[in-house]
Design goal:
21 strands; 483 residues; four-stranded mixed sheet; disordered C terminus
Amino acid sequence: MKLDRLAAAGIARWGMAVRVAKVFVLVLALVDRVAPAAEPLRVGSAAIEIPADDTMDMAGGIHPWKASGAEAPLRATAIVLARGDEKLAICSCDVIVVQADFVDPALERVRGATGIPPERVLVHATHTHTAPSTVRAHACTRDDRFVAGLAKAIGDAIIAADADLAVHPDCRFRYRLGEESSVGQNSRLLLGDGSIFWIGERDDAVRPTGPFDPELPVMTFETADGKPVATLFNHSTHTIGARQPGKRSPAFYGLAAQELEREQGGIHLFLQGASGSTHNLTVGVDEAIVRLKDAVSRARSAAVPRPIDGLAAIKEPFEFRVRAFDESAEEEAVMSYCSKRMGTVGEAHATAEVFRAQRAEIAPHQGETRTTSIQTLAIGDVAIVGVPAELFTVLGVEIKRQSPFRHTVIAELSNDWVGYVPDSRGHELGGYQTWTGHHSYCEPGTGERMVATALSQLGRLQEQLQEQLREQAGHGGGRGEKR
């Protein structure tokens, strides 16, 4: 009898378990109807060579020069991210700067071909100093043939990356904040005579006048089975340094990216961080490439999956004014430094004349209001801030410090170019980056205003993402991607 009662109880418990299981299955079925899984992440990438030849004027120095061949192609490299109808695009170009007058038409072409609106596309210059000129600066003028090919390459790369979305319909995003602390340093060194280092001898250097940012964020996008699609990395040192003198080159960052691509697969994009006050003064090009590749590879290996709960962007006009300046004080600052630090008296006077000519062109525009743009992108909890300037590192660090996002990446020289933008203390200290010219003409305080604008955008961008999450939750979207 006791065994019979135990058997009956076991049968009853089993029956209850079956009924509970049926109810659970029914609940899951109902959830599937009202709460479909989040849209998968689609990723497309492409790289297009920017046409260039030896007849084009090269930028990156005080005077234009001609290259003799290329040690590696100059490229426009693009990535497009998509979830459902949402898309974001980033295009990184191996040129010294990009400017809005040719970027904006290229983005209208992209809109027509892909439907991606311009405010959701970031176009970036890696700032290589060994590419044909895209700008009027120092004694250089824009090479219109090169710019025409660049504008076409920007559009072609983004359109090709958008078409590549279909090849990678279900991707994963991994992120790691890496570090490379030896390639670069704050190069605005206080010298023994109270001046700020630019070029020439620096045996009397006293101390750096600002920070160096060693952070190296790495974002990698891969298929569900781990096949690389694209890797994006960011670092904050001026892109000066080719392996072979006199050649066109994407310089050490671009060379590292192309080698990593061949070795690891997937398109590699580099974004220049806030490096207006940072240069590589001590590490040779070959060694810099080795160190950067190692740092990127280590960060990529250690990267962890990050959720992408949304893709969002803000791009807004930013007004600034051309500075007023004292011609005699500017002349004294340039001549004093160049006569002490440059190789010969002739070189000093030739350089001073270049700055003199630039000031003559800028003088009639003192106090003039101009408009550029600032842009922020969000890839889940990673934000990218695009500023149109060679931003002093201290300002980029301040944006990161105050950003409401878990991870924030600065991409200077994005969408336009307004020259060097120092912080107020940098203006007070003086030096090449503050001498008035086409390379530096914004009034003091512009840098702090850029920081405030970027932080305002980041706050609103986060609110957009939170609103998207609330809407998804309101529709029962609780079965999204795993964190």
